TrEMBL record, chain A:
It comes from the Bacteria. The keyword Amino-acid biosynthesis does not apply. The lineage of its organism: Bacteria, Pseudomonadati, Pseudomonadota, Alphaproteobacteria, Hyphomicrobiales. InterPro entries: AAA+_ATPase (IPR003593), ABC_carbohydrate_import_ATPase (IPR050107), ABC_transporter-like_ATP-bd (IPR003439), ABC_transporter-like_CS (IPR017871), P-loop_NTPase (IPR027417). Gene3D superfamilies: P-loop containing nucleotide triphosphate hydrolases. CDD domains: ABC_Carb_Monos_I, ABC_Carb_Monos_II. This is ABC transporter ATP-binding protein. Keywords: ATP-binding, Nucleotide-binding. One of its GO terms (molecular function) is ATP binding. Residues 13-246, 275-519 form the ABC transporter domain. Belongs to the ABC transporter superfamily.
From TrEMBL, chain B:
Its main location: membrane. It comes from Mesorhizobium retamae. Keywords: Cell membrane, Membrane, Transmembrane, Transmembrane helix. It is a multi-pass membrane protein. This is ABC transporter permease. The keyword Nucleotidyltransferase does not apply. The chain crosses the membrane at residues 37-59, 80-99, 129-155, 161-183, 204-228, 259-280, 292-317, 337-355. It is found in: Cell membrane. It holds the Pfam family BPD_transp_2. The lineage of its organism: Bacteria, Pseudomonadati, Pseudomonadota, Alphaproteobacteria, Hyphomicrobiales. InterPro entries: ABC_transp_permease.
TrEMBL record, chain C:
InterPro entries: ABC_transp_permease (IPR001851). The lineage of its organism: Bacteria, Pseudomonadati, Pseudomonadota, Alphaproteobacteria, Hyphomicrobiales. It is a multi-pass membrane protein. It is found in: Cell membrane. The chain crosses the membrane at residues 6-27, 39-61, 67-88, 95-115, 150-166, 198-215, 221-240, 247-270, 276-293. It comes from the Bacteria. Keywords: Cell membrane, Membrane, Transmembrane, Transmembrane helix. This is ABC transporter permease. The keyword S-adenosyl-L-methionine does not apply. The keyword Lyase does not apply. Pfam families: BPD_transp_2.
């Protein structure tokens, strides 16, 4: 299975033949893993490869069905998060685990014995010491809801350090960060392992694995399919590591499959823009940034990308265009007609579609059957409803067509949509939004959290939509994605567009410069 | 790979009827309902034993007086009429995810409106039109009464549990004030509204004492059930209930739908009051509050918001309360025991559902 | 109308207001704790009734008011234990179980009272007030506020104790985390279920005490349905006060004054139905909600059972 025989000596934590089953699937299938001090151990794998389950077991949220976990060489069941912390295992979860209504200090104090007064002074001294040694600044008395995602992540790392963690687990920690923030995190991890910590770094991005790791384990469908130990890691160059990983993950293909750039569709420059946005303004709210002076045009067949760090107003832009969020100024024209005062459903009827990034939160009704979820945006419309009465055969017939056409893998049309995998839910949304009548489609992080196969399939659909002459706005935090299919890329920061570049040779550096606040 | 998206155990129970069950499903659900009720009867029987009452004798008596005796069954069916309207109103609200706990206030205001307007209307127009107008007035008043919580919820996001609870306290008091100060019958010493003559009330069914309000109630709840499960409007309400953010995303006019839900729910509660007054009571006495609203909530939950199942549970509730009232007089067991029984049924049923869910999960694993 | 303004009348009115406010205060503080930790406790009316009945029975048979309070607290906690097991431990719907418990305890206390005392309603001796020296001699204010049973002063002190608890203690942090982001509390190594259970049991204790006060001091006897919506008022107060104990105190006093005014008017022979005055506090609150409603925010995880690993 693995390239090395795990030797318990020197391991802080070791997994031996760990297996975890969930209804219908084997999430982890007899996995061996050795985690050592002074090493960044990268766990690489696609969605559904079993990374989250593995972390769940290390942090005490879940228990293995078979196999055992050794801590310092001794078999130790980790039965609760409290015990994991006591063993020196600290986890920074993919979804922030801070209480938004408490201050940073209060969050760091969470977990103390309940009868005690919180030891604020002690904490302040400790945090000062840690943040100095790591070279970061922690605003102890700010409310967590006021911090950026990057700052929150630093707080979580500091929290793990305050608790004297010997092993730090970082779960998909780069997905919310800027290229610069990712670099900083890499440097921080280096300093931490130099202090003697062990780090488990989970990612599905090959480049990060190659750049930050000392040891890489590759997971695939719940199995560990390979490991590159430090000796080999040091001997290989970055490109060699990447191609070796690709081979482990996908078999034959030698190249980074994401880098396979699609030929850009041609845009007729003379065609009138389908979507024209001018000076769009949205007021800031308590938990969302506002928008100011947003202007852009998209022509038929064109894909305009919006790059930028998450939380800079991308979602607000999408919602304002779709009509879900009130604009305070500016105009939005669809095929020449002003639509800024119209409601969500009126805009949708005119052909403006919004494919949300929050698939279960707002995109679908999880408890409703797949079939109904296809038609959520046209409830009451013929031929699926006549005189307000549901036409079940008509709905099922069309839903069946869409399921086939978009290759939705579902046990039946009646299955509650929440039971499907993320990729299949996304297919339901794609089918719904790209169905007849679409003219302008806004995609918000369309491949976020999808595995490679579904990511590529989704990008194919987006490209095809543009080929059909639709105007596409593609919001993404994944620069590779934007570079692979967009005609132009605009960069968003603090609620406004700071620049737009054509997707040419130098686009990567120019977009990168815009993202970190430099002129393109 | 559905670990990330598997719905949590608690969240799935509410809209269970959205997927139509097969016959085996129906049978299983029936078992899942009848079984817990039997368990609850046994548990409640133990309480009776503790206070020194023979449970078999008690249950037998309740069954006889509430179900088997000709008079009892007629009373039971009559009692069902207002409860069915209330249940219909709650089904609309709960399915749309809105906790209208203000049914009692809406019921009483509807009742007072009907009691005040019906005697007036019958003097100036044909009886059928008069009753229709009284029903309409009661519905409108209850709808208007629900407007404040509806607007607060729709436009300010104020939790409707507090507002409807407060409006029910207010409504109960207001109903009393109206009876005592505004619509008081000068001809009686006890404060009450003018009494609607028996011949002007809703006709009775055939040769029985059963009110024709029962038919209206059955019609109301069946219509509500069909609207909620088969129409675009019902689907919209269910989307709002199951995932309000998806409703906004899908372009549904959530504030408007919210107000509609409150209006329908309250209107049906007002109709319940009117049916009880025009069909049975004839007038409203001061401080009269049968608190049907709170009693019906469990029945609707037990029925999992399914209209047909709700009819069954309302029937059961009526048998228990009519039988319980007789038993209170004969066996000296206060009819409050019915509350205990309903409570135990509710808890056991919820537990059974939990155990069943757990069993299914472990079997799949 | 001169009677309305006399000193005696005024101090009697305020005295009554405090007496009426205490059960609401205790219920409100209790409900606030549950809600802070993310549990919507609709069963609080049932907990108060259990407290009222057992508190009365305890005081009646032992002859000690304090023992009565103790049994009342135990009664409230017993109901809360059921709620904690069903709603916190195994995550059943909080509204369903809350209503079930309220209905069940309404029936059960009425039933038990019937079989215990039949149709008689024995009274407890009037409680001995604790007179606070010098303060009690102030005209009007003195007799109104400083001649109450000791438990009244304790209840008011509890408001500030709760304030301290929420702001300055580890448990306070834990409770807030359990209501706003339970998963964060869990990974911080604190058992969410345990934290919420503590909150619900505390609610039961406070509601039970409130019920016992209502029966033993307020009324001096137990009658079925004696709480008459006090628990629901507690829910309203807790939701309006949003985590601030002092606001619960003010709210409870507002309702207390209105309730006391009702009785006072009857005594003074003024011919307004008591219902009109009973409507006043609700009207006041509704108007406040209409004006300031937008700011009402509740804990993010209120009403949602916590399940480890579920999102």
């Amino acid at each position: 299975m693995s390239n090395t025989t795990p030797s318990p000596v020197g391991d802080i934590v070791a997994l031996e033949g760990v297996t975890k089953r969930f209804p219908g699937i084997v999430a982890n299938d007899s996995i061996d893993l050795s985690i050592r001090p002074g090493e960044v151990h990268v766990l690489l794998g696609e969605n559904g490869a079993g990374k989250s389950t593995l972390i769940g077991m290390l942090s005490g949220l879940q228990q293995p069905d078979e196999g055992r976990i050794l801590v310092d060489g001794k078999p130790t069941p980790i039965t609760s998060p409290r015990q994991a912390l006591a063993l020196g295992i600290g986890t920074v979860f993919q979804h922030m685990m801070l209480v938004p209504t408490l201050t940073v200090a209060e969050n760091l104090l969470l977990g103390g014995p309940w009868w005690q007064r919180p030891r604020t002074e002690e904490l302040e001294a400790r945090v000062a010491e840690i943040s100095k040694s790591l070279g970061i600044v922690v605003k102890l008395h700010a409310r967590v809801s006021e911090l950026s995602l990057g700052e929150q992540q630093q707080v979580e790392i500091v929290r793990a350090m305050v608790r004297n963690s010997r092993l730090l687990i970082l779960d998909e920690s780069t997905s919310m960060l800027t290229p610069q923030g990712i670099e900083e995190l890499g440097a921080l991890m280096r300093r931490l392992v130099e202090q003697g910590l062990a780090i488990v770094f989970i990612t599905h991005k090959l480049k990060e694995a190659a750049a930050f790791g000392d040891r890489i384990s590759v997971l695939k469908l719940g199995r560990k399919v390979g490991e590159i130990p430090p000796e080999r890691f040091r001997a290989l160059g970055e490109q060699e590591i990447i191609s070796e990983i690709v081979e482990l993950m996908f078999g034959k293909r030698k190249d980074d499959p994401e880098a396979a750039e699609r030929p850009l569709g041609s845009v007729r420059a003379e065609a009138a823009p389908l979507l024209q946005v001018a000076d769009l303004e949205v007021a800031a709210t308590e938990n969302a940034p506002g928008l100011s002076a947003i202007s852009f045009d998209i022509r038929p067949g064109e894909i305009l990308g919006i790059a930028g760090i998450d939380g800079n107003g991308q979602k607000q832009l999408a919602e304002a265009l779709a009509g879900q969020r009130a604009a305070t100024g500016g105009s939005v024209r669809l095929a020449g007609a002003a639509i800024e005062t119209l409601s969500v459903s009126e805009r949708s009827r005119l052909g403006l579609r919004y494919l949300t990034d929050d698939r279960l939160g707002e995109g679908t009704v999880g408890t409703f059957p797949v079939s109904i979820n296809f038609f959520l945006k046209q409830v009451g419309a013929a031929p699926f409803w006549r005189n307000g009465v549901e036409q079940r055969t008509e709905i099922d017939r069309r839903a069946g067509e869409l399921v086939r056409e978009y290759d939705v893998r579902t046990p039946s049309l009646k299955t509650p949509v929440a039971r499907l995998s993320g990729g299949n839910i996304q297919k339901v949304l794609l089918a719904r939004e790209l169905a007849e009548g679409a003219k302008v489609v806004i995609f918000n992080k369309p491949t976020y959290g999808l595995d490679l196969a579904n990511t590529l399939a989704s990008r194919q659909r987006i490209g095809d939509a543009a080929q059909r002459g639709l105007a596409v706005l593609l919001i993404s935090t994944d620069l590779e994605e934007l570079l692979s299919i967009c005609n132009r890329i605009a960069v968003m920061a603090n609620g406004s567009l700071v620049g737009t570049v054509a997707n040419a040779e130098d686009a990567r550096t120019r977009v990168g410069r815009l993202m970190i606040g430099l002129a393109a | 790979m559905s670990i990330d998206t598997a719905p949590s155990a608690g969240a799935t129970a509410l809209d269970a009827t959205s997927n139509v069950g097969t016959r085996r499903d129906m049978l299983r659900r029936l078992m899942m309902t009848v079984g817990p009720i039997l368990v609850a009867l046994v548990l409640a029987g133990c309480i009776l034993l503790v206070v020194g009452v023979d449970p078999l004798a008690y249950y037998g008596y309740v069954l006889e007086k509430g179900l088997l005796s000709p008079l009892g069954i007629q009373q039971t069916l009559t009692r069902m009429a207002p409860l069915l309207f209330l249940a219909a109103g709650l089904i609309v609200a709960f399915r749309a995810g809105m906790w209208n706990l203000g049914g009692d206030g809406q019921f009483l205001l509807g009742a007072v409106t009907a009691a005040a307007s019906a005697p007036f209307f019958v003097e100036i127009m044909p009886a059928w039109l008069a009753l229709f107008c009284a029903f309409l007035a009661a519905t409108l008043v209850a709808m208007i009464w629900s407007l404040v919580p509806a607007l607060l919820r729709a436009y300010q996001g104020v939790n409707e549990i507090i507002t409807t609870l407060m409006m029910t306290f207010l409504g109960t008091s207001l109903a009393n004030v109206l009876v005592k100060l505004v619509f008081r019958d000068p001809g009686t010493t006890v404060p009450q509204t003018r009494t609607l003559p028996v011949e002007d009330r809703l006709p009775r069914l055939f040769d029985t004492t059963i009110t024709s309000g029962l038919v209206l109630g059955l019609a109301a709840i069946i219509i509500v059930h069909l609207v909620m499960t088969r129409t675009a409007f019902g689907l919209k309400l269910r989307v709002v209930g199951a995932n309000p953010r998806a409703a906004v995303h899908a372009g549904l006019g959530v504030p408007g739908l919210t107000i509609a839900v409150f209006a329908i729910s309250a209107g049906l509660a007002g109709l319940a009051g009117a049916v009880d007054i025009i069909g049975v009571q004839g007038n409203v006495r001061a401080d009269w509050n049968p608190a049907y609203g709170l009693a019906v909530i469990p029945a609707v939950f037990l029925a999992r918001m399914n209209g047909f199942a709700a009819i069954g549970f309302v029937f059961l509730l009526s048998v228990l309360s009519i039988g319980g009232e007789s038993a209170a007089r004969r066996l000296g067991v206060p009819n409050h025991f019915t509350l205990v029984l309903v409570s135990i049924v509710l808890i056991v049923l919820a537990l059974a559902e939990y155990v069943d869910h757990r069993y299914n999960q472990s079997r799949k694993a | 109308m001169t009677g309305l303004l006399s000193e005696v009348f005024l101090s009697a009115l305020l005295f009554g207001a405090v007496t009426a406010a205490i059960p609401l205060l205790l219920a409100g503080l209790g409900e606030q704790m549950s809600e802070k930790a993310g549990v919507l406790n609709i069963g609080i009316e049932g907990m108060m009734l259990a407290g009222a009945y057992l508190g009365f029975v305890g005081a009646f048979y032992s002859g000690s008011l304090w023992l009565g309070f103790l049994t009342g607290v135990a009664g409230g906690m017993a109901v809360a234990l059921v709620m904690a097991l069903l709603c916190v431990r195994i995550g059943l719907n909080q509204i369903v179980i809350g209503i079930a418990l309220t209905l069940g305890l309404e029936g059960l206390t009425a039933l038990l009272h019937h079989f215990q005392f039949s149709r008689s309603y024995p009274r407890l001796p009037a409680p001995n007030p604790t007179v606070i020296p010098t303060l009690a001699d102030i005209p009007v204010i003195g007799p109104a506020f400083f001649k109450h049973h000791l438990i009244v002063y304790l209840a008011v002190a509890l408001v500030f104790a709760m304030r301290y608890l929420y702001r300055r203690t580890q448990l306070g942090l834990n409770l807030q985390a359990a209501g706003d982001k339970p998963a964060a509390l869990d990974v911080a190594g604190i058992d969410v279920v345990k934290t919420r259970t503590i909150a619900v049991l505390s609610t039961g204790a406070l509601a039970g005490l409130g019920g016992a006060y209502l029966a033993n001091v307020g009324a001096g006897l137990f009658i079925p349905f004696i709480t008459n919506g006090a628990g629901f008022l507690g829910i309203v107060l807790a939701m309006l006060a949003r985590g601030r104990p002092v606001w619960v105190l003010f709210g409870a006093l507002l309702f207390g004054v209105c309730l006391s005014l009702t009785t006072a008017m009857q005594v003074a022979g003024i011919n307004i139905p008591t219902d009109v005055i009973q409507m006043l506090p609700f009207l006041a609150v509704m108007i406040m909600l209409v004006l300031f409603g937008r700011r009402a925010s509740l804990p993010a995880a209120l009403g949602i059972p916590y399940e480890r690993g579920a999102r």
